[in-house]
């Protein structure tokens, strides 16, 4: 039975600004994930709102929107065995100050908001997010 699945990952503006794109991509590839699609882009507030639709009314969201629209980011679709769970494990806990060593956030982030990466949290989210970022897939 093929357990391969796809997930969306974002390398947020802080990852791009800090020159960490290659290191982060290397971690995903070293784990055995394949890059299906990838694009460097800057998003506007409407794209941020569509992506983070479940958070738009939350208090923490306006600064998050400002952050993700502040500069270029890398959006990518990764594929592999249990890709959603694997990417979330590689990314580490959302708060970089609490993320385990060996994870992207645990090794490279000291922030909750500027936490370098995003990974879809479920198969439903992955499907919705991939369609939003890469409608041709």
Polypeptide structure, described:
This protein is α+β, with helices and mostly antiparallel strands and 137 residues long. It has one domain: Alpha-Beta Plaits (2-Layer Sandwich). The chain has 7 helices and 4 strands. Strands 2-3-1-4 form a 4-stranded antiparallel β-sheet, with helices on both faces. The longest helix is centred in the last third of the chain and has 11 residues, at 123-133. The radius of gyration is 14 Å and the shape is globular.
Name the CATH architecture.
Answer: 2-Layer Sandwich
Pattern of helices and strands? EHHEHHEHHEH
Count of individual domains: 1
- Write the CATH fold name: Alpha-Beta Plaits
* Main pleated sheet: 4 strands, antiparallel
CATH superfamily: Nucleoside diphosphate kinase-like domain
Strand order of the largest sheet: 2-3-1-4
Give the percentage of residues in beta strands.
15-25%
Helix content: 40-55%
Identify the overall geometry: globular
End-to-end distance, in Å?
A: 23 Å
Mean pLDDT: 96
- Strands, count: 4
The CATH class is Alpha Beta
Rg on CA atoms, Å:
14 Å
Return the structural class: alpha+beta
Weakly predicted, low-confidence segments: none
Count helical runs. Answer: 7
Task: Produce the secondary structure layout.
Blueprint: E1 4-11, H1 13-17, H2 21-30, E2 34-41, H3 45-51, H4 61-68, E3 73-81, H5 83-91, H6 104-108, E4 117-119, H7 123-133
Which properties best describe this structure?
40% helix; alpha+beta; Alpha-Beta Plaits; 4 strands
């Amino acid at each position: 039975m093929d357990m391969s699945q796809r997930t969306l990952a974002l390398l947020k503006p802080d990852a791009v600004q800090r020159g960490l794109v290659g290191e982060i991509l290397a971690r995903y590839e070293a784990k055995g994930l394949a890059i299906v699609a990838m694009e460097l882009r800057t998003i506007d507030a409407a794209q941020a709102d569509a992506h983070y639709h479940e958070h738009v009314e939350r208090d923490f969201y306006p600064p998050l929107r400002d952050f993700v629209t502040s500069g270029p980011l890398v959006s990518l679709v990764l594929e592999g065995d249990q890709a959603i769970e694997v990417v979330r494990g590689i990314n580490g806990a959302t708060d970089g100050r609490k993320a385990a060593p060996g994870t992207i956030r645990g090794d490279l982030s000291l922030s909750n908001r500027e936490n370098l990466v995003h990974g879809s949290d479920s198969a439903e989210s992955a499907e919705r997010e991939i369609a939003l970022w890469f409608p041709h897939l």
